[in-house]
Amino acid sequence: MTMTRPLLRQPLALANIGLSLIGAAALAYLSLQILSAWRGGMFAEAVQTIPAQTIALAALVYMTGHLFRSMRLALLIGGWSVGLRLIVSFHFVTAGVSLAMPLKLGEFFRIAALSRVAGSVTRAIEIVWWERLLDVVALIIVMMIALRDVTGSQWQDFGGIVAVSVAFVAVSVLAFFVLPDNLRRTSILIIRRYRGAHTVPVLQVLERARSAIIEAPRMVRTKMGSLAALTILIWACEIGTFAIILRAMGQVITSAPDALLKLLSFLARGQTLADVLQSHRLFDASFLPYLAATQVPLTFTAIPAAILFTLYWRRR
Q1: Residue 247 lies inside a defined structural domain of this protein
Q2: Are 76 and 219 contacting, i.e. CB atoms less than 8 angstroms apart?
Q3: Taking every pair of C-alpha atoms in the chain, what is the biggest distance, in angstroms?
Q4: Going by fewer Cβ within 10 Å, which terminus of the chain is more open, N or C?
Q5: What are the tens digits of pLDDT across the range 194-213?
Q6: How much is the pTM?
Q7: Of the segments 42-51, 93-102, 179-188, 299-308, which one has the largest average pLDDT value?
């Protein structure tokens, strides 16, 4: 007769419980913050300025973009082995939780949760890295188009974001296509020059790193066309949402590029709805209509998505 360990002594069960508690706490906190801000009149101006049907249309376009994001995630994971419903609900849950975490800390939660779905932390990191790399490339293209008629003084405000984005792309290219061969050469050098048991752990770490890095390009080798198409659709929805809100606010076409750059800067720095709710006086009030039409609906969509994800996960 085999003995089973208690649930709380199983590391995997503890990790799942911890992630569930963090996610539930983040969504509950953000929901309460939104309701408190709404009752305090924070969103009153946004609702009065923009008709409800316009906000609903912008929210629909924005949520469609997140559906495309979940499809891209399914393509990276291999949705046939996990299930599309599970992946879609997972995406909306983690996207909602990320809104409560500043400075892109939500990415760590997404990686930790994705490791349960994808099978390993390494694979989760590779998937999230590809997601961000595709978005950063799209962000660079959008910002370069928006900055083409911008003066030198305005360039200084956004030059840092463009530089960091380009550096991220460059590091990714070097890591995926240059680093593996250098790790192999380093391993050969260690074998030739050093002998002893102390070199074994180092060689093992180098081999594991090389294997993980090599796997990242293989993951998208036959999928790049589909991933690029989905990324274009994602950012078409992002810009379409912004255009709907901008038009409803009565902005003239000449001010659109500047407003777009401010929004991209706001999002690229990792600022989220939680930041605005906590210190709304320090933020541009023009962001509120956009947030009311995008991140607020996403938060309340994440709650039923969390319930569905739990049900789908238990049925596996």
Answers
A1: yes
A2: yes
A3: 77
A4: N
A5: 777 777 788 888 888 888 88
A6: 0.83
A7: 299-308
